Amino acid sequence: MITVNSIFKKFGKLEVLKDFTLNFERGNSYAIMGPNGSGKTTLIKSILGMVLPDKGEILVKGLSIKGSNDYRKYLGYMPQIGRYPQNMKIGQLFSMMKDMRPEIKTYDLDLVEAYELDKIKDKSLGTLSGGTVQKVSAALAFLFNPEILILDEPTAGLDPIAVEILKSKIKNEREAGKLILVTSHILSDLEELTNHAIYIFEGEVFFNDSIESLKEITSEEKFSPAIAKLMQWSLKKKSTTKAMTYA
Ligand SMILES: Nc1ncnc2c1ncn2[C@@H]1O[C@H](COP(=O)(O)OP(=O)(O)OP(=O)(O)O)[C@@H](O)[C@H]1O
């Protein structure tokens, strides 16, 4: 459903994505993991067309994302930090988003209702708490019932009830055959929500396989120790590569 074909991205001298090739298939939920600054958001933003790779190609449902924004209708995106016009009211934001997609007549209002956003529709976005902004972002990501959901640290900043609501929504959507991409540092969330692990380390895809395989390869029954082992291996590889370079 999404093909990332040998993409490279540098910011100045910093090589953030080095030869990334990945396939994302419908009905699966992918955990995109890696240390801070490893390139998770850059990967997501490249798929969304918000960051332009220096080389390589990205296809969404077989269509290259270069040159046309048409593919974006398939994507729902929840950013790490939602930035909205400060003086706009919640209700106005939703009306504006609906006006931008006039061809869509039915909306997925599950999260609008669960988070009771209608009750605060006259509040300005600039006055909202961080968690409430996250609720707005989550509700917008699902609003047009997209086939692909890209969620960047979706549970960060949400209270425990809001987290459970969002997690159950994500699980339902995956069961309905959608493709889900999630980045998070909260391993218990990833274990619950995903079936495929992608671990990025220093600009490279260090691991890309099912969570079952990850557990087998690491000889760990639980997700968290399996990831810890992967992290140790990536650090070991780094020091071995360094030693080889200096030899
Ligand atoms: N627009 C930009 N200009 C310059 N450098 C950037 C830009 N965007 C990202 N970077 C740098 O690229 C690297 C990767 O950033 P990115 O946000 O993709 O990491 P991440 O894996 O999502 O990190 P985190 O876990 O902290 O969210 C970082 O070193 C970051 O500072």
TrEMBL record:
Gene3D superfamilies hit by this protein: P-loop containing nucleotide triphosphate hydrolases
Domain ABC transporter: 2-227
UniProt keyword annotation of Nucleotide-binding present: yes
InterPro entries named among the record's database cross-references: AAA+_ATPase, ABC_transporter-like_ATP-bd, ABC_Transporter_VariousFunc, P-loop_NTPase
Highest rank taxon of the organism: Bacteria
Gene Ontology molecular function: ATP binding; ATP hydrolysis activity
Pfam family, one: ABC_tran
SUPFAM superfamilies, A to Z: P-loop containing nucleoside triphosphate hydrolases
SMART domains named among the record's database cross-references: AAA
Sorted UniProt keywords: ATP-binding, Nucleotide-binding, Transport
Name used for this protein in its record: Cu-processing system ATP-binding protein
Taxonomic classification: Bacteria, Pseudomonadati, Bacteroidota, Cytophagia, Cytophagales
